[in-house]
Amino acid sequence: MDKQTLIEDLNGDLAGAAKTKGRRRPRLTQFFLTRIPDEQAHAQFLAKTIVALGGEPTTVPRAVPQANTNREMVEAVLASQRQAIQDYTDRAQEARALGDEILAGDLEEIVRQKSRHSRKTERILRDWRL
């Protein structure tokens, strides 16, 4: 192992991270950081549910689009939130079709949380000059 290999490996780990900049950096950084606990909780919920259903949770995340500006980062967050809302809505319908009302309700609660985050993100894009 040499220093350059370590740097390359660390950069691989960093590849999907946010890189806010400019005068809005503190506010945008806070915006991203406040989302972490919810995202972790959703991931834990999904993993536990998959195991409870007899499956194996994936360890491969979806691809993260490259964002070069603050606006592109926030737009990517909004697109991700909208996709998650659709995905969780679909999963709730699937759970209900299988007769699992509790799981459907849990998934619908995540949809409500994602919808609130989505509205906040839309306001940022509408009101801020990023």
Structure description:
The structure is a single chain. The longest helix has 28 residues. The protein is flat. With 130 residues, the chain is mostly helical. 13% of the residues are buried. 73% of the residues lie in helices and 0% in strands. Helix 3 runs antiparallel to helix 4. The protein contains 4 helices and no strands.
* End-to-end CA span: 40 Å
The stretches of 5 or more residues where confidence is low (pLDDT under 50) are none
Number of helices: 4
What is the arithmetic mean of pLDDT?
A: 84
Shape: flat
What is the total tally of β strands? 0
The biggest beta sheet is recorded as: none
Question: How would you spell out the order of helices and strands?
Answer: HHHH
Helix fraction bin: over 70%
Indicate the proportion of strand residues.
under 5%
- Oligomerization state: single chain
Return Rg in Å: 17 Å
Q: Which structural class best describes the helix and strand composition?
A: mainly alpha
Short structural summary:
The protein has helices at residues 3-14, 25-52, 70-97, 101-127.
List the helices and strands and how they pair.
Elements: H1 3-14, H2 25-52, H3 70-97, H4 101-127
Helix pairs in contact: 3-4
